[in-house]
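note to self: the first set is below, dont mix up w the second
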Amino acid sequence: MTALLPALLPAVVLGIDTPIGVAIVRSLGRHGVPVYGIARTAAAPGLASRHLHEGLLRADDAEGTLAQLEGLAARLGEACLFAISEGDIALLNGHRERLTGYRLLFPDARRMHSVVDKGLTYAAAAKAGVPVPRTVQPATLAEAQAAAGTLRFPVVLKWAEPNEAGILLRRAGLALDKTRYCHDSEELLAYLRQFAPLGRYPLIQEYCAGYGLGQFFLMHDGQAHSVFQHRRLHEWPPEGGVSTMCESVALDRHAALRERSLALLRELDWEGIAMVEYRYDPVRDEAALMEVNGRFWGSLPLACHAGVEFPWLAYRLATAQGGAPTRPVQSPYRAGLRCRFMIPETKRLLRLLLRPGAVADRRLAFSRGGELLGYLADFLRPSMRYYLFTWSDPAPFFRDLWHVLRRG
């Protein structure tokens, strides 16, 4: 008689409103995992995926969400729990005692804090020999003024702990800029003066030329079980932000930098998935660390399209039986594959065509005709894939497009 295979544990995905959540649903569902997705709104594209076993709308508040997860655990029995956003991970980490029915596939509070707080990340990077851009954390406006005379402009401003800073800024009626470019000391100090009543200031970081280079890992017991890397081709906004088009890069490139990334993750005692993001200057062959992302990242669909299905690999590692081997399982993947996030990619094109002066990084130069032709020609590129659209599961893309058009 043929031995029966053990049933796959169900998986609960908190946050199927983005391409990240959709990629997790697809990766697990393709391998036969029963996936239960929780969405914030009925417009969530993940609700339309054919790989979703059951979709639910999220409760209105934190307590309701926790109760919803407890109810699912009681109904499903043992299950894996995926969380995507930093806010949700913080919420769940604060109530782990209520999640005993789950195998948790997100970092614990200590590890998450070590990458959310950029000061802690850069300190670990220094120990691991990872290059970082020159960074100043002023405690007072006078300190910022003194540092301004020694900085190489332009500079980029970002908050060391953006989640905490966002709360403080909202209370003070101030906007949170994820990144802010300043091109001289006068512009820098004028921007920083608004934070004087708070007594809190963003990090000041010298600008690094080049493009975004991401190195991605699934870590377990200090080993990299799977590795992938890509370069950012386009971003929204154009000067830096969300990746709107990226390309997979072969593992025979940036090998020395990847070893430093591994050293950094070991210094952080990292477990699970992580993205180590750099700004890479191909002219000087130099890289500078931007951040470590301790959760599933925005360009996850590219890795899955290329052949490294991090959600499924993380699930397999989390559900391995006691005596099962946990040796690294590096997946071969296709280099040179591209992936586009169509709605922000279109917003990027419109910004470059209609408002090029609004691009904050004045060092960037674009050809309007070249950008338009490239945008159209990429629809015919055989190596192009998409964050949301796939021929095998097209409904999430059309659901998202329909709701975008309705809002518009």
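second set (the one i keep forgetting abt)
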Amino acid sequence: MAPNPLHIGVALDGAGWHPAAWRAPNSRPAELFGPGYWTDLVTTAERGLLDFVTIEDTLTIPGPPHTPADDAVDRVRARIDAHLIAARVAPVTRRIGLIPTVTTTHTEPFHVSKALATLDYTSLGRAGWQVRVSGTAQEAAHFGRRTVPDLSAAELGEALRSGVYPAHVHDLFDEAVDAVEVVRRLWDSWEDDAEIREVSTRRFIDRDKLHYIDFEGRFFSVRGPSITPRPPQGQPVVTALAHSPLVYEFAARVADVVFVTPGRAAGPGHILEQVTAASARAERGGEPLRVYPDLVVFLDTDDESGAQRLARLDELSGGEFSSDAAIFTGSADDLADLLLEWRAQGADGFRLRPGVAVDDLTAITDRLVPALQRRGAFRADYPDGSLRSLLGLSATAPNRYTTV
């Protein structure tokens, strides 16, 4: 095994991150909502020895964020549930981490805790959680319990530039902080040896090793304990996507890994400094926050260059593709060089977004991984252990109630 292997995950989003990906020759639009398609994607990623897959999800139909809904039918306008996809592929995979997106808005942390703990059991310690805030009026309208003002693309851009957000945005992230805290406490509410399972004494659990969490906050009041035993990892891996100091600080308060979006030319150095500053403001203790830059990738194939493939997709969609993350087009060797360069600047790992899921995930597995292995920068096999240990976190997180 490489002495200090790169950590690489992929972000799966339907047919791919380009809106015309479903129209690419090798895509499988008729199968997007079937189990075979998702099983094939995740097993392809596992064949490449990747650390994890994240599975995108929102409470809105896919489309550009913070733009008015339209009636366009030339892109995939439907989703299936990310957590249930992860549950489906868990039994047919063995080593790769499974990180579905689950919103903290309009959901109850007790349900989220139970669902993700169950995924950790069914995957034998490979579960994670990508925390998402649902901040649009359209999403709130699905539930009818509250109103959320819309933030336009222009207002979002100004907030990102100035670092000043409307009060309701701060409220959404404060709520998310509390939601993650409740979930984490519920995961700890059973000590690791709380299950006795002694038939002779008729004792399944040691009731003294179950704990009320007694969380009282602005948004939630949860007594606990959970009805699900502590997950195999103790604490499944918590991740978040962040684009600004406000969200870097949110990630520093709640997450193990933060996905960031540096520009291609600037690299991750400045963002790494901002994440460090956010961690200091949040007075983060314990393990440091791991920082994984995102890249949307269109890799060269035998038939076309990545740039040609992107240009063809842009022509199909009728406009130039843009993304919050930097866009890479080129060879696997060039991408390998870029990842190593960014690691030298301090990145802890990377999350790659395949422009076309079928084509670019296959290229990551069959071209990028061997290119990194030739450089001695990527593993030749999976090590034993959980997703936490694969990412270099403590193998089993300590239980706050046991230590008390």
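remember for set 2: DSSP finds 13 helices and 13 strands in the chain.
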